[in-house]
What we know:
- This protein is an alpha/beta fold.
- Among the domains are: about 35-155, Rossmann fold, CATH 3.40.50.980; about 415-515, ANL, C-terminal domain (GMP Synthetase, Chain A, domain 3, 2-Layer Sandwich), CATH 3.30.300.
- It has a 9-stranded mixed sheet with strand order 2-1-10-9-11-12-13-14-15. Strands 16, 17, 19, 20 and 21 form a 5-stranded antiparallel sheet that branches. A 4-stranded parallel sheet has the order 4-3-5-6, with helices on both faces.
- Helix 4 (about 95-105) packs across helix 5 and helix 9 packs across helix 11 (about 290-300).
- About 45% of the residues are buried.
- Keywords: Ligase.
- Pfam families: AMP-binding (PF00501), AMP-binding_C (PF13193).
- One of its GO terms (molecular function) is CoA-ligase activity.
- This is Acyl-CoA synthetase (AMP-forming)/AMP-acid ligase II.
- InterPro entries: AMP-bd_C, AMP-bd_C_sf, AMP-dep_synth/lig_dom, ANL_N_sf.
Amino acid sequence: MSLRDGVIDGDLQTYYRSLLEEAGDDEVFVTQSGSYSGVQALGLCEGIRDELIRRGFKPNEYCAYGGSDDIGMVAAAFGIALAGGASFGLQNYVGADSWTRFIRDTGARFVVCESFIVEKLRDRLLEAGCEVEFIEITAQGSILAPTGSEAFEDRHVSYDDASVVRFTAGRAGAAQGIVLSHRAQFYSLAKMAAVYGQRERGRYLQLTPTTDVQGIGMLVAALFRRETVIIYWGKPTTEGIVRAMEQHRITDLFLPSSQMVKLARSDAAAMADLSALDRFVYGGQKVSAEDIMDAYDLLDCDFAQIYGSTETGLLMWLSPEDHRKGDSKVFDSAGVKVPFAGTEVIVQDPRTGEEMPPGEVGHVVTKNPSVCVQTLGYDAPVEVVDGWRDTLDQGYFDEEGYLHIVGVSRDVILYRGFVMYAFDVEKVLLDMDGVRAAVAHPISDAADGEHIFVWVALDEGVQYTEEQLGSELEVVRGPWYRPSRIQIVDEIPDRDASGAYDKQKLRERAEAIMAQ
Length: 516
């Protein structure tokens, strides 16, 4: 079972079984309900596999699972795989209405879950006309009402069959399922395992919910590294995470960038014994170079930053060696390509499809075995051209090969066939004295496709008119860049906890304004 090149030589259920069998009586999971060896965990997975098959579950069917973060959710995900199915988690943070859409969109006939999920879902599924069987389990993975005792063999499927589905909100606001094959998921897991590195007697702290594809993926990557997985229970807090790190002698974990910085600067971390910590992996949010350097100095362990997505897999990273350089320009980047065969990342001109030279901004696109080529739900179809998929980010490579993200490609504005970047509009306005904030995005127009709408907040005492701001854009960028509307406000609305603007919500506001 080699992870070196990420090339799969068996479906994922083969690997799941092998990992647990190799662990034997050694501890592989520590959860709220106790400690579980490889043998014990495999027994729970096989129990769920057998119950699914007894009830008529077929290979390559989709199956939902949901519940609390304990061994039961691991057993459910693995058990569905052993039965030859493709799993998708019912994440607790999205709610029963979204779960119903997920089940409807996949056509799933079975849900493996704890009783509280049944109570939330049953009536909604009936109203939606979905006929579903619930296989109720405990948080510890035991089946509450098994239909028999007959045991079955694992079912095996093609490498290119669906393995997992992750549902997101989608660009249109409706549920979109990102479907990953066994081949794609394995390649992604192998890259993730490489980023975390190998260590003796590693103990990985699992903070991402096990009903999330990324959570179960990080958990499996830890098993690939032969580490014990400590599944955090309850709502993660800085103090709670630090307490778990100290109690369980955690060697490695992942947190979003801003939470990593918050933890590093906390009083709890300063007073705790975190000497077992070997590598802290972070990503998913933009934080300043100063914040990263501060956290690195405070925690005194290896750091690794990752960049990628569910749709494309892991693409770029800042290695521990990069962090040791202490170069703020490096910390402002998404890193260099993960050193893994088969992953290609370029910056492309959307007008011509040509690769952009260093320093020139374009679309970040990738070709690699992790790329998602199938979606479920109501969003736009996946656009994969000759194996290349757009990440929906804008960026550029510097001369040293570090990728710098400057915006998102979904902010591209198409006006009468002319391609404009929202980033370019924002930059011109932010370069004007007295402009405190500027956010540009497209709005729909029946005649021309899309127009530019811009929100602007000015410094106190500064007075610009819409005409003056529009004229500056026309002079610097050309006549196509004059917005249809510039809305000058005291504060630009719809900013989330990370500080980013929700452009979907802003677009809805803008189109309501234009409709008046």
